[in-house]
Design a protein that fits this description.
TIM Barrel; alpha/beta; eight-stranded parallel beta barrel; 544 residues; binds (2R,3S,4R,5S)-2-(hydroxymethyl)piperidine-3,4,5-triol; six-stranded antiparallel beta sheet; Chondroitinase Ac, Chain A, domain 3; single chain; 2 domains
């Protein structure tokens, strides 16, 4: 999908009919205490996370891997508050939850629930079970110490690897039991739906081995592809090699893991039907995979169809985007922005250049976006020692949520209805356009107030972002950071120009627009100039 997105007169008409209804129904900003079960819904090819009956936008943050402990939470909550996040992604560690087989300790989960409620945020819990970053490090000791019962994946040279076999029946049974216990506990302890979604496992994989080469796995690999899977993948029945050729091992490995995860997810859902999702690590989206040699076989968008066919209990599959280049980021968003998949970015980099990509994700209809590791535990992944996660860095990301937070429900609704477009600055192209039927919004970067250059220079660091939503045929909600937004009639040959009839700055309070002042003069004569001050406009246009 290109950055320039069109929507038709039909879509506009449907939107205005439904917007009037939906606007009246939009509830105030959500706080933990929702009474309805969260759900992922789809309408006209667009997606929403419904929380208490209305679309919800997760202004997320994920804590560092070892931060979801009562001892560390005092260094987490201040970062969450400062960030103005409304949703926090917290791991649940299998090794902590079930230190002795069958004996569950929910004290840490309960501390997460209590803290989230106190800080008026929702939670997304991450089940660090059989797989975490392609390894099995979060299994309890009783699993780790019994490789005969809980087998590791066997590499091509016959040696055990640092990850679990997806054919370990006892491992599957144990993971299912633990995940089910977690979901059962949530059902009992979280009637107010502080928890919105649960991630099943984490970046599942088997780095460095195309598949499990254990005798059992090899026997299954040499047998026929299950008929249902062959049909779903549109291949002729036969052995894995006959059906998938050079991709046979990768396909087999992904299918084996997806089949395992489906059973874990299904068991958990039977206890408590929260939306479940999976997070994918990625390969470079600008380089096509080398046939038969995907470095990370079970993940990346190349295997989305396999997951969709094999794991129907997983509601959505989400990319963890740590690539800071604009072209890569957009390419990943394109790949996961599918009619059969709700867009969600559960992890993204926490260095400054990533902050603007919240808007790129909004432009792809995301239900949430979440930088990784923005807590105040003193830890930073990239690059070790050089990036400091402190209040200053948090504030760069907080700007997004301070801007969007007061109107997060409106933004979620407008996005679900397909009337919203948003962009992040591309350092190679300094203007971007968004087409709304007869009006085209233009976004320019790097111009000072009185600069009308047709070729803007771009910001020194590409930090710009902009969002435009159509509220009525000639009325728009507009906001941005370090960007100039203007409008022109889409029909350039018509000889018409745009006039700002009225530009109101305001804010949403409990779902209602509150007028603050009218922008005019320097603030509008050259376009609508957004700085790093959070400002939201409602703009009425006419053509003359
Ligand atoms: C992706 C994983 O999903 C996270 O848990 C974390 O390990 C980050 N990578 C990077 O630290």
């Amino acid at each position: 999908m290109s950055r320039v997105r069109y929507f038709t007169a039909v879509a506009v008409a449907v939107f205005f009919a439904s917007a009037c209804l939906a606007q009246a129904a939009a509830p105030p900003r959500a706080q933990p205490g929702a009474t309805q079960m969260p759900s992922i819904v789809q309408k006209n090819g667009r997606w929403a996370l419904m929380v208490d009956g209305a679309p919800y936008l997760m202004l997320g943050v994920q804590v560092n891997n070892s931060s979801a402990w009562p001892a560390t939470l005092p260094e987490v909550w201040p970062a969450v508050d400062r960030l103005h996040a409304n949703t926090v992604e917290m791991p649940v560690y299998w090794e902590q939850l079930e230190p002795t087989q069958g004996k569950f300790d929910f004290s840490v989960v309960d501390a997460l629930l209590a803290g989230a409620r106190q800080h008026k945020v929702h939670l997304v819990l991450l089940w660090f079970g059989t797989w975490k970053n392609g390894a099995g490090h979060y299994e309890p000791e009783w699993v780790k110490r019994d490789p005969t019962k809980y087998p590791r994946l066997v590499g091509p040279n016959g040696a055990p690897r640092d990850t679990m076999s997806p054919f370990g029946q006892a491992t599957l049974a144990a993971d299912k039991a633990a995940f089910s216990a977690l979901m059962r506990h949530l059902k009992a302890a979280d009637a107010r739906h502080t928890v919105l979604m649960v991630q099943v496992e984490n970046e599942i994989n088997a780095y460095g081995s195309a598949r499990d080469y254990s005798p059992e796995a090899t026997q299954i690999f040499n047998g026929p592809v299950p008929a249902e899977f062959a049909a779903a993948m549109h291949v002729k029945p036969g052995t894995w090699t006959e059906a998938f050729g050079a991709e046979a091992e990768n396909t087999f490995q992904t299918w084996s893991i997806a089949r395992y995860v489906e059973q874990v997810a299904k068991a958990g859902k039977q206890e408590y039907a929260l939306p479940l999702y999976l997070n994918h690590s990625l390969s470079n989206p600008l380089q096509p995979p080398v046939e038969g040699r995907l470095a990370w076989p079970a993940m990346t968008d190349h295997v989305l169809d396999i997951w969709k066919a094999t794991a129907p209990s997983i509601d959505l599959i989400a990319p963890d985007i740590y690539m800071s280049q604009y072209a890569q980021y957009e390419k990943v968003l394109d790949a996961y922005d599918r009619k059969d998949n709700a867009m969600f970015v559960p992890e993204t980099g926490n260095a400054a250049p990533f902050a603007r990509y919240f808007f790129a994700a909004l432009g792809h209809g995301t239900i949430g976006w979440s930088p990784f590791g923005l807590d105040l535990t003193g830890y930073a992944n990239w690059p070790l020692g050089a990036l400091v996660v402190d209040e200053k860095l948090i504030d760069l990301f907080a700007l997004n949520y301070r801007l969007i937070g007061p109107m997060d429900r409106e933004i979620a609704r407008l996005n679900f209805e397909g009337t919203l477009q948003a962009v992040a600055e591309d350092p190679t192209v300094h203007t971007q356009t968004m087409v709304f039927g007869p009006w085209t919004a233009t976004v320019a970067y790097g111009l000072h107030q009185f600069d009308r250059r047709a070729e803007p220079p771009g910001n020194a660091d590409p930090t710009g972002r902009a969002l435009v939503a159509q509220l009525a045929p000639d009325e728009f909600l507009v906001t941005g950071v370090s960007a100039r937004v203007d409008f022109r009639p889409t029909d350039a040959g018509g000889g018409k120009h745009r006039e700002f009839v009225r530009v109101e700055e305001g804010t949403y309070i409990d779902g209602k627009w509150k007028f603050l002042r009218i922008w005019n003069g320097d603030q509008t004569d050259y376009g609508l100039n957004f700085t790093t001050t959070p400002q939201v406009l409602r703009v009425t246009l006419m053509a003359y």
